[in-house]
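A.,

Following up on our hallway conversation. Structure tokens first:
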């Protein structure tokens, strides 16, 4: 069969299977896998050369990891650090240990048992997030915890895929002879080359391409970026996925992030779909006949172990209500990276072909059973296991207030108290139900709701209100709300609280005109009191603080203009410090020299 006919078969299978599964409210991934089962050797037998197709389709995983890298901005990782690196690492270690012990007890060698335990501990990011979104649970406590765990899994799988070839059976003797250290040196050298090359060559090259204003050339440059870094890493025997991920992270803070993601997305979607079709074709359905009890035991066994372990981690993390159980039933199924891991492990002879076939089919079945388990919990088991289910958002009955406060923590409460003292009515929204119940005990009127949702903003009266006070603590939710408000309610004045300069820059990107940096004003007031306590006259202390504030606000605007260029950002910060020194030097100088110093400082700024 020629290649064009094979392409037609793949497209036809996807076009039929994926919409059908979406109509059944199942993941499109399952649709691709089912399509592969039908057209593969164990189905209609339309495609025979499965190994070659699977090898080519793995580039879809490479593109997936590049896009994941684009999403992982360092600032975003820092905000989510506790959930991602705390809860995520706990889930990974506990699940790998429990599943690895079970695999070892079943008779597998220790090294193989650890690989199996790690592979089965992974969950499908696409599948879980889609199921949570369909059920409206992404913003619930267990939904946020699941997102953090999945993000850590995406990070954790990369070094494992990178070093797997180094610990294969064929490489065992060589590792003992020093190949392990050569692999680490190669990995370090490649990381340095990609980071330095990305800073020195990649970003400037993309700027040159962008100036051509040719979308197809920029798309070609995006693909070249992924392929080039993937090939560079593969040349030293490491995973191509690692190189693509590193390239994505390197460009996550660049001005090209959104355009790169948009250009790569169609290729990623098609090739990833082809990968899952190939996985379905490679699934050994003969095991359903030859070893049905073993397959059922492996599938149900690891689902049960993983659900219990993840729930236990949720309890230890002190998630409230029945969120730990919901988390456990959201993440028990296997994930797409398990296909990649087990396929690669079999190729490197770390797993037997029979074991790999059994595990791949077990993971496939688990991805079909996982959403059903979550639905069963929501329908029945939460009544027995859940101490207090998370309630629905409140219905808002106040729609004519001039002010809406999104986020009712310390910042929002102080604003609310001042407004109440002036008898100005407001509507307050808070996404933490425990916080809402506590605040209400003191007579405050606040609604439980997520301000980043358009329907709740409309229900709160954003279409007729004059001012939105954006006091949400979580940076991502704050920026997301600001973007939504600017798009849907452009007439609304937004006064936003920013946690730091990076948060302020993101809010400025979203079009927020009034930004108050957290602790900034209180720090200035404290500085003024300190100056007075040290003997500075009150008027002089106020002048010094006022001068510093004007200078810092001007610096913030200048830094925002170059925030995507690290070198210019550093230069602007250093120049700002020098200018501030000149200002205070002028204050201390004799009257005759003050004008001269200020004029030189202004010339340097210009």
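Then the amino acids I'd put at each of the 606 positions:
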């Amino acid at each position: 069969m020629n290649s064009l006919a094979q392409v037609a078969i793949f497209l036809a299978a996807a076009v039929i299977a994926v919409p059908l599964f979406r109509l059944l409210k199942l993941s499109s991934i399952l649709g691709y896998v089912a399509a592969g089962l039908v057209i593969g050797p164990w189905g209609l037998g339309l495609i025979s050369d499965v190994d070659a197709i699977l090898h080519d389709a793995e580039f879809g995983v490479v593109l997936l990891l590049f896009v994941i890298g684009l999403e992982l901005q360092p600032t975003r990782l820092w905000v989510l650090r506790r959930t991602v690196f705390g809860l995520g690492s706990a889930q990974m270690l506990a699940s790998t240990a429990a599943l690895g012990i079970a695999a070892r007890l079943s008779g597998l060698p220790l090294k193989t048992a650890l690989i199996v335990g790690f592979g089965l501990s992974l969950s499908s990011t696409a599948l879980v997030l889609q199921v949570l979104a369909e059920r409206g649970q992404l913003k619930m406590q267990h939904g946020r915890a699941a997102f953090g765990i999945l993000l850590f899994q995406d990070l954790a799988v990369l070094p494992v895929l990178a070093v797997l070839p180094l610990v294969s059976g064929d490489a065992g003797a060589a590792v003992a002879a020093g190949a392990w250290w050569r692999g680490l040196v190669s990995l370090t050298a490649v990381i340095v080359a990609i980071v330095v090359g990305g800073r020195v060559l990649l970003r400037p090259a993309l700027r040159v391409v962008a100036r051509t204003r040719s979308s197809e050339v920029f798309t070609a440059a995006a693909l070249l970026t992924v392929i080039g870094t993937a090939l560079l890493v593969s040349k030293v025997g490491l995973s191509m996925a690692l190189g693509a991920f590193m390239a994505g992270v390197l460009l996550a803070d660049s001005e090209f992030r959104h355009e790169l993601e948009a250009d790569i997305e169609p290729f990623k979607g098609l090739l990833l779909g082809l990968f899952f079709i190939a996985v379905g074709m490679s699934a050994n359905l003969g095991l359903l006949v030859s070893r049905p009890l073993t397959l059922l035991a492996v599938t149900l066994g690891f689902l049960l172990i993983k659900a219990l372990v993840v729930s236990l981690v949720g309890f230890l993390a002190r998630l409230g209500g029945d969120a730990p159980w919901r988390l456990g039933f959201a993440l028990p199924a296997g994930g797409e990276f398990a296909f990649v891991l087990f396929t690669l492990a079999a190729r490197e002879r770390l797993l037997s072909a029979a074991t790999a076939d059994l595990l791949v089919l077990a993971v496939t079945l688990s991805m079909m059973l996982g959403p059903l388990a979550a639905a069963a919990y929501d329908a029945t088991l939460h009544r027995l296991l859940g101490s207090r289910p998370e309630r629905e958002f409140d219905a808002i009955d106040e729609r004519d207030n001039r002010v809406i406060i999104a986020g009712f923590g310390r910042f929002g409460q102080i604003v609310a108290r001042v407004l109440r003292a002036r008898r100005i009515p407001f509507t307050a929204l808070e996404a933490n139900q425990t916080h809402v119940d506590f605040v209400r005990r003191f007579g405050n009127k606040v609604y439980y709701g997520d301000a980043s949702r358009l329907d709740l903003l409309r229900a709160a009266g954003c279409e007729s209100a004059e001012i939105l006070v954006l006091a949400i603590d979580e940076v991502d939710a704050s920026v997301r709300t600001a973007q939504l408000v600017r798009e849907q309610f452009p007439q609304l004045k937004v006064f936003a609280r920013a946690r730091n300069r990076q948060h302020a820059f993101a809010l400025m990107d979203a079009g927020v005109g009034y930004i108050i940096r957290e602790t900034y004003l209180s720090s200035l007031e404290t500085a003024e009191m300190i100056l007075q306590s040290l003997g500075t006259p009150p008027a002089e202390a106020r002048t010094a603080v006022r001068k510093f504030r004007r200078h810092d606000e001007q610096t913030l605007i200048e830094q925002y203009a170059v925030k995507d260029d690290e070198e210019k950002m550093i230069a602007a910060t250093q120049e700002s410090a020098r200018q501030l020194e000149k200002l205070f030097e002028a204050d201390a100088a004799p009257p005759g020299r003050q004008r001269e110093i200020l004029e030189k400082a202004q010339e340097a700024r210009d």
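The mean pLDDT is 76. Curious whether your intuition agrees with the design.

B.
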